[in-house]
């Protein structure tokens, strides 16, 4: 037989068994004991019986009997749960920026903002105004990139960790 005829035969078998139900291979395997749920682990009914997984969700928890769950207060966590959650300390204040960096940020956003505002409000834009706005944007960007620095800090010492 050629590889093509084997492939055709396998394909015919797949098509022929398309509507057949699959055999359940797990039918003869027993249910593991660790999967059994008992009342101690929280199994129960929704009517508030002992071991209820969701207490307070039964039909008579509102007292009115009109609608189940209507007028019910939201569930609250026990008082001891707050101690288990990590609350990070407040972040340190931002360092004060120098005048050049503030001016660079203003130029970076102010130039395009002025051009957008002037275009929306139909203000007359002379050539020197457009040139100044675009130049301010470019200058602000260049100053911020140059001041960013891409090297290690000066006080990092001789061992700067893994260098790839």
Automatic annotation (TrEMBL):
Keywords noted in UniProt: Membrane, Transmembrane, Transmembrane helix
Record's compositionally biased regions (Low complexity): 39-62
Domain of life: Bacteria
Transmembrane portions of the chain: 103-121, 127-146
Bias (Pro residues): 87-96
Region called Disordered, residue ranges: 1-96
Protein name per its UniProtKB record: DUF308 domain-containing protein
Species of provenance: Microbispora maris
């Amino acid at each position: 037989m050629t590889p093509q005829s084997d492939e055709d035969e396998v394909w015919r078998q797949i098509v022929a068994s398309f509507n057949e139900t699959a055999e359940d291979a797990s039918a003869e395997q027993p249910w593991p004991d660790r999967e059994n749920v008992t009342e101690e682990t929280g199994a129960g009914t929704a009517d508030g019986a002992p071991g209820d997984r969701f207490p307070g969700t039964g039909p008579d928890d509102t007292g009115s009997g009109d609608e189940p769950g209507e007028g019910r207060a939201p569930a609250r966590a026990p008082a001891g749960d707050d101690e288990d959650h990590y609350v990070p300390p407040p972040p340190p204040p931002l360092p004060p920026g120098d005048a050049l960096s503030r001016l660079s940020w203003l130029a970076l956003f102010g130039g395009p903002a002025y051009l957008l505002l002037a275009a929306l409000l139909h203000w007359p834009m002379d050539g020197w105004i457009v040139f100044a706005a675009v130049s301010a944007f470019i200058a602000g960007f260049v100053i911020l990139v140059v001041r960013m620095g891409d090297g290690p800090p000066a006080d990092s010492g001789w061992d700067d960790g893994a260098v790839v």
